[in-house]
Each structure stands twice: as C-alpha cells, then as structure tokens.
Design goal:
single chain; alpha+beta; three-stranded mixed beta sheet; 5 helices; 7 strands; about 40% helix
C-alpha cells in the first residue's frame, strides 16, 4: 500500500481510512448482496491493488509525451489513458489547483474495466491545463 497507493495530501492511514469508509464499506455491502468475492476490508484493498495493475498510467502518459513535472490539456491526459488502457477514465485535481490528484477507473459488477461517464470526466480542476506533479514519479518505481 505504501508503494502503490500513497496519499497525496494527508497521512496514509487517514487517506486509507477515508477510502475504506467512503468506498470500501459500500463495495462490501454491494458485493455481499450479489454474492461477489470482495467481503472483507482486506479483500477490498487487495482487489483495488489488483485492478491498479491492469493499466500502467505513467506509461500511457509517457507514450503521449506527458511526464511528471509537465502539464497538458485535460483531454490529452484522458486520451492518453484511453489509448494506453483501453477505457475512458475520470480525473480529479487536488482541490483548489490544477495539479492532478488521481485518475478514476470504472468497473462493472465483474470487475471488468469500462468507460466512465464522459460528463464527469474532469473534477475540481481550476483550468484545462493540468499539471502532473513530480511526486507521481515515486509510483514509477513501484509499478
């Protein structure tokens, strides 16, 4: 978790608690209703890390000439991910800035990646020119 899912602006434990409280507990309830495989907190985080391995975000961006420390129009970032990973993600900036905070990927009930709703493609970004902070480079070594 430290290498593959670090926090952007708070302690890792607080960030992971937020992820569990907001997303994991909801996912568990749904998975139990449909008889899915994710039934514990450990299952939730394990599945999230497995899904992360399906798409190399930094390599997808690199193929478009976008690297940590650079900036690009939001639609170029999204197009790079669509080209490299095969699905259209959502992206969010760190609140109050144009620094990329995360890409969000959408999945169906069987955990197959699918295009996210294009009407919600970009969230919380102050401008169309999005910066990919250098801190993202730490994820390259772990990928």
């Amino acid at each position: 978790m430290l290498e593959n899912w670090p926090s952007y602006g708070q302690t890792n434990s607080r960030f992971w608690k937020h992820e569990w409280d907001k997303h994991g507990s909801c996912a568990i309830t749904y998975e139990q209703q449909i008889g899915g495989p994710v039934t514990t907190q450990h299952d939730y985080f394990d599945k999230a890390l497995q899904l992360r391995e399906q798409c190399n975000v930094l390599e997808s961006l690199k193929a478009f000439g976008i690297s940590p420390g650079s900036s690009a129009p939001a639609m170029d970032l999204l197009a790079a991910i669509k080209d490299g990973c095969g699905v259209f993600p959502q992206m969010a900036c760190h609140p109050g800035s144009s620094d990329l905070e995360e890409f969000r990927f959408c999945y169906d009930d069987e955990f197959r990646a699918m295009d996210c709703h294009p009407g919600k493609a970009v969230e919380d970004c102050r401008s169309d020119e999005i910066s990919l902070p250098v801190w993202q480079q730490t994820l390259t070594a772990a990928a």
